[in-house]
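Lecture notes, continued. The same structure-token format from the folding unit now serves as the input rather than the output. Read the line below as a description of shape only.
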């Protein structure tokens, strides 16, 4: 949904949400010292992240960095990497329990 909203509808709200989430992560885990990005949207996200950090400077308690690097990939640079993964409920069930002939046998001790 975020890809469609951002690329097709031109709505940058998802970039704001991502920057806000990364800012909150850095408040908990410390400032991420190395951030790498690929693509125009990754650059926009980085710029927004830096601006949010600057606006909140002095408000957060200093925390020792626990994350040493962050890689931001613009989805328009890497469209196909989402296709080979099973990021659907059916895919996750298949990965965890196995689907045989359109049915799943769930172990009773797990539920």
């Amino acid at each position: 949904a975020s890809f469609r909203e951002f690329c097709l509808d031109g709505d940058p709200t998802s970039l704001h949400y991502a920057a806000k989430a990364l800012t909150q992560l850095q408040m908990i885990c410390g400032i991420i010292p190395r951030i790498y990005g690929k693509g125009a949207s990754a650059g926009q996200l980085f710029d927004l992240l830096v601006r949010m950090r600057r606006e909140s400077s002095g408000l957060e308690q200093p925390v020792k960095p626990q994350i040493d690097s962050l890689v931001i990939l613009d989805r328009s640079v890497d469209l196909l990497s989402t296709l080979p993964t099973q990021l659907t409920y059916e895919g996750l069930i298949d990965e965890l329990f196995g689907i045989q002939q359109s049915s799943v046998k769930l172990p009773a001790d797990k539920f």
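Point for the exam: Strands lie at 34-38, 69-73.
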